[in-house]
Every structure is written in C-alpha cells, then in structure tokens.
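The instructor's notes for this session suggest beginning with a concrete chain rather than abstract definitions. Hand out the sequence below and ask the class to guess, before any prediction is shown, which regions might be ordered.
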Amino acid sequence: MQLPDAKLTSVAWASQLVLEAQRLHSKILLAESSSELVAIIEKSTRCVYIKSADGTVLFGNALYERVFSGGITNGRNSQKFLDPTVLGVSQHSDQIILAGSDTVLLEHHGRDKIGRQLRMHTVKKSLLGCKQHRAAILGMTAVESHENDEAMKLIALSRCWDVFRNLAERDREIAVAIAKGQKSRTLAELYEVTDKTIDNRRAHVLKVLELENAMDLARLLTRLQDNGYCDFGL
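After discussion, reveal the predicted structure:
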C-alpha cells in the first residue's frame, strides 16, 4: 500500500525507534489494567498513543496530546483532531497494521495542533494479543526537527515537566525552595534533617532534570510557571 507523502524512515532512526517501541510493546502486552498501561506510556519521551481498529485513541501520553491535539485525546477518533497533513499518513499506516503487518516505519512531514511544520519518524506495531479491550495499534512518533526552534523548546519543556512532576513530593518542595533562594541550612531546620540530606536531595533533583546548578533550576521552574504548568510562587 502506497503511503501519501511518506517514506521508510532512515536506518539510524529505524534502529533506535524499533528498539524503543519493542520495549514499550512488550510492557504493554503484559499490562493488567488501564492505569498500568497509562503509567507505561507516560514514561516515554516520545509521542505515544494506543488506538482501536476504528482509529479511536484509547490512550495518549501527555506529549502526544500537547503536540497533536492540545487537549485530551482519550476516547476521540484521531480524525477529529489530527491535522490533515498528518491524518492521511496515519490512517494509511493504520490500515497496513490492521491488514496483518506487525510493524510499520515511516518518515513523514505534517503540521502540529497550531499549524507549524514538523518532520516526524513514526513506528507503529500491532497490539494483537494485548489484554486491554479494543487496543489494536501502538504508535510512537519522534519529532526530529521543526521550522521553528521555539516549538522544539516547548516540547522539551513538556518533557521536563513530566520529569519534575514525577519527583517525590519532598524533592519538589525542596526544588522550589532552592529556586527561591533558600539555603540548605534553612531547609534542613525546616524539615528537621541534616544539611547533607538537603544537599543530597538537591543533587538528585539537578541530576534527574539534567541541570548544572540552582540558577538553572530557577530558570526552568520559572519557564514552567510562565507556560502555565504550575504556580510555584516565583
């Protein structure tokens, strides 16, 4: 079947995406509940979605929703929110999977939810045998480049938010306090722990968020706040 405006993705991207998708696929097939499945796809740094045979998105992670719909996608047919430049390729590749193929790899172009041009690499896999009712297709899309660097920055910011919100509550509290300029000694007294404990938690937060210092942390939390993710009081 010929895919409109699409071609097989490059070998380098294919190898990387297939490996990531295969790992995700194996976990999804073993998922016992919807909540477990959602937790699995939310950990991915790619746009990940699970569709039924009729094109309804049963589950989509936060990054997928931000890039392609700007809102909740679960329970919505993809033709209701995908840009037409993406929809055609999406529907045709779905048909290939439903016709019996195990895996489809694509490199394609299209527009995001606000009309900006994307170049994408997508892998789709059959979910035949999945324990979740109606699940038929697993999709994973990597956004490689964009006509506007700001869009890529927003995607990266979304990933940072996902990492931050999954930190332990105490680590999030300490991160915000550090971003506000509070010292380790003050926080140690507040939480009734040693200065060393606070320093260790601070180091952990910076490592997980891939930041160098407290100034970088303050900048990140300010950007998250300015983009509406959370009000940190900064």
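Then share the key points. The two ends are 54 Å apart (CA to CA). Residues 11-30 form the longest helix (20 residues).
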